[in-house]
Amino acid sequence: MKFRTLQLLTLVAYLGLINSQRTVLDDKFTGIFRNGKDKIISLIKPRIQQRNFNTNLNSNKLQRQFSEKDNFFCDVRYGARSEKVPNSVHKLTPGDVDIIGAIGDSLTAGNGAFATNPLQLLLEGRGVSWSIGGQGTWRVYMTLPNILKEYNPNLYGYSISEYSNSYEKSSRFNVAEAGAMSQDTVIQAKNLVKRMRSDKNVDMKKHWKLITHLIGGNDFCLNVCYFNDQNKIVEDAANELILVLRILKQHLPRTLVNVVLTPDVSITTRFLNRPDVCKVAHYLECPCMFSPTHLPNRQRTINTIKLWKKRFEEVVKMPEFHDTDDFEVNIHPFLDKGDIPKYPNGNTDFTYMSQDCFHLSQKGHATAANALWNSMLTTESKRLHFFRRELEEFKCPTSLSPYLATTRNS
């Protein structure tokens, strides 16, 4: 336990150094930081891929594995690529999506997806990230891109390595950064536009693009409890989201954006039968919820989280993001309640979570991918606000409803 605590302290200290908020000094020191990060990760990474896969498989932290004989869940004739490229986002099938990208934090970077000890939370499993990973196929790694590849094998932009950083080529259009907060998303949006413009595989005017946005966990855990004016924090975050959506709308024609509501981190305070290492991790990674200093204001933080989500929903519904046929924004609340499946005795099922009981295991990523896919095929008013068990439901396009759901077509 002492060794694991030391690993966690090393991890938190390192993330605090590398992933603090961007400043004007970054251009000078980013190279040094990345160099240090690469050296530390190089000590952790060698020869662990297959070993960690097997360890997680034996611990039931991987999704259900399928063989090549197993058919896909859906008849891909429904939702297949249109005969003619659609001119409206409201006529977009899964097969019409050409380019995929993502903005976010460590939940999108895939930190700890295969971790077998706390220090391995440094490793970013971008290739298996729920919204943007494209490693392998859905049979081994259920991700949104691996689902979409069944409809369009030429899908492009997903991350392709189990362990890669945002600045590596294998990350592609996953611009998420571990430790990111809402104030970092404008930079990420600009970076995403820059990457797409400079990639010869992207036809900016012709290709349909799908971008998934998830941010807020670090704000809730590490930031909001240090400020008295909670309304200002929420308004600042809402304004950041508005700027991000305006950047995407202005520079990425033919784009559908998924805004996924951030998990309610207060759910971690109600986890039952937490391992000791997770108790330490939660104290270090989420002081706004677990530090004795901030316990008196915990309810205020919870109220801020609720207000934050309400404002994000209001931003997504702003008319300026729904006034054209080549841009649309959808809200997806399936992580809203932060619920993790439980065993019959009420204990939390930590097989969905990584070593710190905060990030997701590969099984958790697969379940989140399944949930996002289901939500993308569901009318807004009927979208779920909770996390279902692995593959409890898998929705499919139909002959009557072949399109990705938007405010106008469902």
Automatic annotation (TrEMBL):
Sorted UniProt keywords: Cell membrane, Glycoprotein, Hydrolase, Lipid metabolism, Membrane, Repeat, Signal, Transmembrane, Transmembrane helix
SUPFAM superfamilies documented for this protein: SGNH hydrolase
Signal sequence coordinates: 1-20
UniProt membrane topology term: Single-pass type I membrane protein
Major localization listed first in the record, in broad terms: membrane
Cellular compartments annotated: Apical cell membrane
A single GO molecular function term of this UniProt record: triacylglycerol lipase activity
Reaction catalysis annotation: 1-octadecanoyl-2-(9Z,12Z)-octadecadienoyl-sn-glycerol + H2O = 1-octadecanoyl-sn-glycerol + (9Z,12Z)-octadecadienoate + H(+); 1-hexadecanoyl-sn-glycero-3-phosphocholine + H2O = sn-glycerol 3-phosphocholine + hexadecanoate + H(+); 1-hexadecanoyl-2-(9Z)-octadecenoyl-3-octadecanoyl-sn-glycerol + H2O = 2-(9Z-octadecenoyl)-3-octadecanoyl-sn-glycerol + hexadecanoate + H(+); a 1-O-alkyl-2-acyl-sn-glycero-3-phosphocholine + H2O = a 1-O-alkyl-sn-glycero-3-phosphocholine + a fatty acid + H(+)
Pfam family, one: Lipase_GDSL
One Gene Ontology CC term in the entry: apical plasma membrane
GO biological process: phospholipid metabolic process
Family of the protein in this entry: Belongs to the 'GDSL' lipolytic enzyme family. Phospholipase B1 subfamily.
Protein task: Calcium-independent membrane-associated phospholipase that catalyzes complete diacylation of phospholipids by hydrolyzing both sn-1 and sn-2 fatty acyl chains attached to the glycerol backbone (phospholipase B activity). Has dual phospholipase and lysophospholipase activities toward diacylphospholipids. Preferentially cleaves sn-2 ester bonds over sn-1 bonds. Acts as a lipase toward glycerolipid substrates. Hydrolyzes fatty acyl chains of diacylglycerols with preference for the sn-2 position and of triacylglycerols with not positional selectivity.
The protein's name in its UniProt record: Phospholipase B1, membrane-associated
Organism: Chironomus riparius
